[in-house]
Design a protein that fits this description.
The protein has two domains: 317 residues, 2-Layer Sandwich (Beta-Lactamase); 156 residues, Alpha-Beta Plaits (2-Layer Sandwich), CATH 3.30.70.270. It is 48% helix and 20% strand.
């Protein structure tokens, strides 16, 4: 490894600092002007296609962001309503409607849910009585009385019966809240207990709030946003955000009435036909480029947790202004061309040949722990890079979390140890170690404390071995391996006992450890004489079998199996 240059050398030879970059800069300057004008001429011919492609990407992003915003709204409501529908308090009330204590407990829980919802109230329908309740945060439990009786023949109650008859947990729709006289985006969630439907709880996002948040940035003649359900009904339209009839009253318009362009209409219908239920994935937005009509780009994106799609209509001017985009694109591509072509052709000897030698030396490290990287003696950027790579290869043998050797080091070292011991049929012992019920520990205390536990156990294992030839490594997860060259059965057993005691003496609390009240380990031990052609994988497998036996027989112990 190179020593750092002295101050005297730096003063005498300042030109050596950064000389690789200086050579690169001087040579490429000659090509800069010629390459710029050449690529600028080419880009004039390609600019329209590039802008078209970029416009499609931006149209897709706009639609995806709108779909994501509504998906986030709906998914939050679904999560809250799912929690409420599965709560014991709510299911007990729906099973025993008039019991005061159950009613009060359910009210308190639902009132807490309302505070987290976008809406301001909940509706509860009982399957047993067909009573419908409206719960608001300002009410008190004694005031909760049914305000209506659900009627299967009343279209206003379709939300309830459609949800009860559905094989899905919840349903979404847009409709008028007759009690509050407001249009809302509804989420109706079925309450089921023991396979029996007890009723439905429903909430709704204020329609004006949803429309304003999703489509306020489309308030121009350049873009238009729509939300269309599976049946092809337009449910939201940014062109109507100031229309009171659209916001407060019933509004239904089919896509056949709205779109006259067959390409757009067929694309939307095709996407709707693919919907089989409430999607759980965002999917890739589909962008259609039309040659006629008011809008050139039509983008379709699904909305998660619903069977709706966002349709975004965009004009060219809403995505990019040609005058501003052309100079930037020409400059960027011209510079890219300079870097790509001139560097490959002219600077082979300055950069790529030395890098090739460096790459070749790195490849030789594959089967060796001895690190010798080409270029470490160079006094330029390549020399600095070589030194860093050499240091990284050294660090690659250490597990980042525990600070002990990692599996790579173990495997490489065992290859060398087996080759050495096979010459004299020397003895080799392996200890496979696993922390007992570590998943339970993580589930109880969290992964941060799990990492602390792993570090403590690793330190204790390393502290339990003393010979220079012995070492411990993290095998993966909560498993460790101890390698004991020239160690027989007695020595291996002694180390196993020592490690069992040292880990227990850490006294790390583990209330869900069936073997003890503290963190413990199970150990598998094997010993054998190494012969020519034998692989270390066989010894590891035998140690793992011994570890499995320790776990099966109660854990917090070791098991020895001869190889």
């Amino acid at each position: 490894m190179n020593e750092q240059p002295s101050n005297e050398n730096i003063v005498k030879k300042p030109q050596r600092r950064g000389k690789l970059f200086a050579r690169f800069r001087r040579v490429n300057t000659l090509f800069f002007a010629a390459a710029f004008f050449l690529m600028a001429a080419i880009m004039v011919l390609l600019i329209d296609g590039v802008i078209g492609k970029t416009s499609k990407e931006h149209a897709g992003r706009y639609a995806a962001s709108t779909a994501e915003a509504l998906s986030a709204h709906v998914e939050k409501e679904v999560g809250l309503m799912s929690k409420a529908a599965r709560s014991i308090a709510v299911t007990e009330w729906l099973a025993d409607e008039n019991e005061p204590t159950k009613k009060k407990t359910a009210f308190n829980e639902l009132a807490g849910v309302i505070k987290e919802l976008y809406g301001y109230n909940l509706y509860v329908g009982f399957e047993s009585s067909r009573n419908e309740y409206s719960i608001e945060t300002g009410e008190t439990p004694p005031d909760i009385q049914p305000f209506a009786l659900l009627d299967k023949d009343d279209p206003a109650d379709d939300w309830y019966f459609a949800c009860v008859d559905s094989d899905q947990e919840y349903m979404t729709n847009i409709g008028i809240d007759l009690y509050l006289q407001r249009k809302r985006l509804w989420l109706n969630y079925k309450v089921v207990s023991g396979g029996v439907t007890l009723g439905v709880i429903a909430t709704g996002l204020e329609f004006e709030h949803v429309v304003d948040e999703l489509f306020s940035h489309f308030e121009s003649t350049e873009m238009r946003g729509l939300i269309i359900d599976k049946d092809g009904i337009i449910r939201m339209d940014s062109a109507l955000i100031d229309d009171e009839d659209f916001l407060l009253k019933g509004y239904e318009k089919h896509i056949d009435e709205e779109f006259t362009n067959p390409a757009i209409l067929n694309a939307i219908k095709s996407r709707l036909r693919e919907i089989t239920g409430y999607t759980t994935e965002s999917g890739t937005p589909e962008v259609i480029v039309t040659s006629a009509g008011a809008f050139r780009y039509v983008t379709i994106a699904p909305i998660r947790s619903t069977d709706w799609v966002v349709v975004l209509l965009s004009k060219d001017a809403s995505l990019f202004d040609m005058k501003n985009f052309v100079p930037l694109l020409i400059t960027a591509l011209a510079l890219l061309s300079i870097v790509t072509f001139s560097t490959n052709f002219v600077n082979y000897k300055l950069i790529f040949k030395p890098l090739g030698l460096l790459s070749g030396s790195i490849k030789t490290l594959k089967d060796s722990l001895e690190v010798t990287v080409y270029g470490a003696d160079r006094n330029d950027e390549l020399g600095e890079l070589s030194t860093v790579i050499e240091d990284l290869f050294n660090k690659a043998n250490v597990d980042a979390l525990t600070g002990i050797y990692n599996r790579r080091f173990m495997e490489s070292s065992l290859d060398q140890i087996m080759a050495m011991l096979s010459r004299e049929s020397g003895m080799l012992s392996l200890l496979m170690i696993d922390i007992d019920f570590f998943k339970r520990f993580n589930d109880t205390f969290g992964h941060d404390q799990g990492d602390v536990c792993l570090k403590a156990v690793a330190n204790a294992i390393v502290g339990g071995i003393s010979r220079a030839s012995d070492f411990a490594a993290r095998y993966g997860g909560e498993e460790f391996i101890v390698v004991l060259p020239n160690t027989g059965e007695t020595g291996a057993r002694n180390i196993a006992v020592k490690l069992l005691r040292s880990i227990y003496d850490l006294e790390i609390p583990h209330p869900h450890n069936d073997a003890a009240q503290y963190v413990t380990i199970s150990v598998g031990v094997t010993t054998g004489a190494v012969t020519y052609g034998q692989s270390w994988e066989e010894l590891v497998k035998r140690a793992d079998e011994a570890l499995y036996a320790s776990k099966q027989s109660g854990r917090n112990k070791y098991t020895f199996l001869n190889y």
